[in-house]
Amino acid sequence: MGTLDGKSIVVTGASRGIGAAISNRLLAEGALVVAGCRSEPSVGGVTWVPTDVTDSLAVDALMASAMDLNGGLDALVANAGVQVEGTIAETSESDYDCVMDVNVRGVFLCCRSAVRHMRKHGGGAIVNVGSVAGETADHGFAIYNASKGAVHALTRAIAVDHGRDGVRCNAVCPGWITTQMADAAFQQADDPEARRAESVARHPVGRLGSPDDVAGMVAWLVSDDAAFVSGSMFTVDGGLTAQSPIGG
Question: Strand 47-50 relative to strand 233-236: parallel, antiparallel, unpaired?
Fold first, then answer.
């Protein structure tokens, strides 16, 4: 038996990368997973509800689908996100709108809808996917950094405001994880492979993270084992941001 047997969980941005790994892990632990994303997930066993997380009606329909299909909504994993490279001087207003709409408005709408359901039905757990970029700025990712900082602040606010409703809210903060988004960042360099090797060398554990590294933390946070955990940011970055900036 898994630690999440029978729990009804919504995962957004589940079609690939971290979202797909989270869905796989939750399924392995016995959860009933509804995937809210634009593209059909590659993960077998989930129920796909095509969803634009920036559309409040679509988000409300996603949460209602989980309630109807699985008899409740025990947890939300708000993972959908986009990344646009550039300093603030290089960032257009359309870039700003794109990133903030998905990364902040999308998380806001999903959390709002989930909280409204959960507080009427005994509570639940929310895990937002933030980033180490929300605490320490990655170079050349100005608006992405800002969006993840907003996700962290919203996570704390939900935990404080709705703890007495039985709602727990935390965030996982991945570092450099081997996904298409990371690959796109490396491709911006003059020598992508050298940039990748340099990034690996900066990690005390000697490698980049995998989506499964993040999925394990999420599975614990939505489980009953984390019943007294709320309002916290959990860094998953192989020690990258723990070290002194002065090299060893």
Answer: unpaired
Residue 52's pLDDT band (cuts 50, 70, 90): very high
Is 96 an annotated catalytic residue? no
Mean pLDDT, residues 134-158 = 96
CA distance 200 to 182: 12
Class (C level, CATH) for 8-174+211-233:
alpha beta
pLDDT for position 1: 57
**Cβ(55)–Cβ(247) under 8 Å?**
no
Confidence of residue 247 (pLDDT cuts 50, 70, 90): low
C-alpha dihedral (235, 236, 239, 245), degrees to nearest 10: -60
CB 128, CB 107: distance < 8 Å: yes
The confidence score (pLDDT) of residue 248 equals: 60
Q: What is the gyration radius of the CA atoms in the chain, in angstroms?
A: 18
Instruction: Select which of 144, 176, 220, 234 is catalytic.
Output: 144
